[in-house]
Design a protein that fits this description.
This protein has helices at residues 3-18, 23-34, 49-58, 76-79, 113-116, 118-125, 160-163, 177-191, 204-215, 221-235, 242-245, 254-270, 278-289, 297-301, 306-316, and strands at residues 39-42, 64-68, 80-85, 90-95, 102-106, 127-130, 133-136, 142-147, 168-171, 248-250, 294-295. It has 320 residues and is of the alpha/beta class. α1 packs across α9 (204-215) and α13 runs antiparallel to α15. It has 2 domains: 3-191, Rossmann fold (3-Layer(aba) Sandwich); 216-316, Helicase, Ruva Protein, domain 3, CATH 1.10.8. A 5-stranded parallel β-sheet has the order 2-5-8-1-9. Strands 3-4 form a two-stranded antiparallel ribbon. The chain has a two-stranded antiparallel ribbon with strand order 6-7. It is built from 15 helices and 11 strands.
Length: 320
């Protein structure tokens, strides 16, 4: 095992101890980080979404900023703006909170589309344009946006174009009884200041090296064809199930194929394998496709979800 993979796995194990009952969230956050992407996390309040991204940032020696989205937030509150400096008689750009390594966009659906779109350029191109000038964001950059599925009053649905910018859309549930007991014990230890010591923090270069190593994981032609056919099935499901095809208005974009390729390789790398299997693809396919499939009114009327469609596709598309 390479030295950097040992560090990443130690980080994952530490986060699993701190974010109890949310192993899937921890795994998907690390995959998103190594894939140079952004994650949208949906879950009820109190499920350690904020703690997860803060723990990740502290373990990477990375700059972390939290942006609380509210209805009165302005785009410049995120990106920054030109400020007139009277002493110099000139305008100077003052960077906003988006200029950090890891960003928590908390309750992103609380702000209107104009504010949400302020993230689009940063997420897609790793830069911010203000006053006709372009400012580069750090090489290590990731946005974790959260949204609350319980409350809908005073919220704004994210546009499909912005949803597609998220590498993964992760849904998390309440912990079970056993995990709840572990959470109690963890909080008591933290209050008594006897929490588990964190592993040695990773440098930004460690993360970049991990990305390079994961990119070298082998993907055979047969597994690549399987991956492509999964995405094609979201666009032409009539080839497999004519009735189910009526549930999809628009299938996944090419970003889905690219995301599956990157994330499946990282999943295999974390499992200490130098090659991708269909199980690696199936491990990440729901988080990659669920926000890229636009359902028809018929599907919504019958209570069919994107996850239902993906599960059906996995049964219909033959394994290599």
């Amino acid at each position: 095992m390479s030295e950097v993979r040992t560090k990443i796995i130690a980080l994952k194990n530490f986060m699993d101890e701190q974010i109890i009952g949310q192993e899937d969230l921890v795994n998907k956050l690390i995959i998103t980080l190594l894939a140079d992407g952004n994650a949208l996390v949906e879950g009820a309040p109190g499920l350690a979404k904020t703690k997860a991204i803060k723990t990740l940032a502290s373990a990477i020696k990375a700059q972390y900023n939290r942006i609380q989205f509210t209805p009165d937030l302005l785009p410049s509150d995120i990106t920054g703006s030109d400020i007139y400096v009277a002493e110099k008689g000139t305008f100077e750009f003052r960077k906003g909170p988006i200029f950090a390594n890891l960003i928590l966009a908390d309750e992103i659906n609380r702000a209107p589309a104009k504010v949400q779109s302020a993230l689009l350029e940063a997420m897609a191109e790793r830069q911010v344009s203000v006053g006709g000038k372009t400012y580069e964001l750090p090489k290590l950059f990731m946005v974790m946006a959260t949204q609350n599925p319980i409350e809908h009053e005073g919220t704004y649905n994210l546009p499909e174009a912005q949803l597609d910018r998220f590498l993964m859309y992760v849904k998390i549930d309440q912990p079970d009884a056993e995990s709840e007991k572990k959470i109690l014990k963890l909080v008591r230890r933290e209050i008594a200041e006897t929490a588990v010591a964190a592993p040695a923090a990773l440098d930004v270069e460690d993360v970049l090296q991990a990305r390079r190593e994961a990119a070298e994981v082998h993907l055979s032609e047969a597994v690549e064809e399987y991956m492509v056919q999964l995405v094609m099935a979201t666009r032409h499901l009539e080839k497999y199930d004519p009735r189910m095809a009526g549930y999809i208005m628009y299938g996944a974009s090419p970003r889905a194929t690219l995301a599956l390729d990157r994330c499946a390789k990282i999943h295999a790398w974390l499992q200490e394998r130098g090659y991708v299997t269909p199980e690696d693809i199936r491990a990440v396919v729901f988080d990659i496709l669920r926000h890229r499939i636009i359902l028809s009114f018929e599907a919504q009327a019958e209570g069919v979800t994107a996850d239902d469609v993906i599960a059906r596709i996995l049964k219909l598309v033959p394994l290599p």
